[in-house]
Each structure stands twice: as structure tokens, then as C-alpha cells.
Amino acid sequence: QVNLVESGGGLVQAGDSLRLSCVTSGQAFGSFDVGWFRQAPGKGREHLASFRQDGSPPHYSDPVKGRFTISKDNRLSTVYLQMDNLEPEDTATYYCGARLWTLGTFDFWGQGTQVTVSS
Predict the structure, then answer these.
(1) CB of 115 within 8 A of CB of 10?
(2) pLDDT (tens digit, 9 = 90+) per residue, 36-95?
(3) From CA 81, how far away is CA 21, in angstroms rounded?
(4) In Å, how far are 25, 41, 61, 63, 116 from 87, measured between CA atoms?
């Protein structure tokens, strides 16, 4: 069981930045894959960026490459998503997700944090 609690969302203007935080608990940090996803109204959940438990470099999905940066603090068991140059199309609920096995599905989710970008 991995518990995830997101924070840091809000209402910003296009071009602004936000940093989301995801505090994890329940399993030793680093023993599971963890990443950020988002879901816009009427759309499916979309992978943004994630860390694998094998310590390989983070993986980014194309829509956010060069604008979003995932990072982590092992001491705080926390994963961050730095979002720069936000666009109205980034408006969504942002979720932190985790999976115990790299070949498995992301089964553990936080409650989500809302990000709204106005034009």
C-alpha cells in the first residue's frame, strides 16, 4: 500500500509557474515507481512524468517535455512537479500515482490537486 497526498495546485495566469508536491508513505521511498498524471474534464488520465524504482532517469511524456520537471527528496519521501510557462491547456486535476512493479499498472493514487490556467 502506498499513500499519496498532493498539494500545490491553484489558479494562475498563462506563463506562470507552479510547483506541485506529493508526499508518499506506506512503503520505503524508492521501492516503487512514482509519477505525475493529469486529467482534464472529459478526457482520460494522462501520464506526465515519472521515476522508476531502478533509479533510471525520469521519463517525460511529450506534451510537457521542456516545460515540466519532476524531482524528488528522498529524505522527505516527496516527489515534486515544477511546471513552468503554463498554458490554458494545462488546466486539469493533477494526480500523483504509484505502482509497486515497473511492469504493472499505477494502482495507488492521491486525491488530486486542481490546476487552472487562465488566458
Answers:
(1) yes
(2) 999 999 999 999 999 999 889 999 999 899 999 999 999 999 999 999 999 999 999 999
(3) 7
(4) 32, 16, 16, 11, 9
- Distances 55 to 72, 85, 99 between C-alpha atoms, Å: 12, 28, 15
Cα–Cα distance for residue pair 87/116, rounded to 1 Å: 9
Residues 6+ apart with CB under 8 A from 5: 22, 23, 96, 110, 111
**Which candidate, 44, 49, 50, places its Cα nearest to that of 64?**
49
Phi/psi region, residue 77 (left: phi>0; alpha: psi -120 to 50; beta: rest), is: left
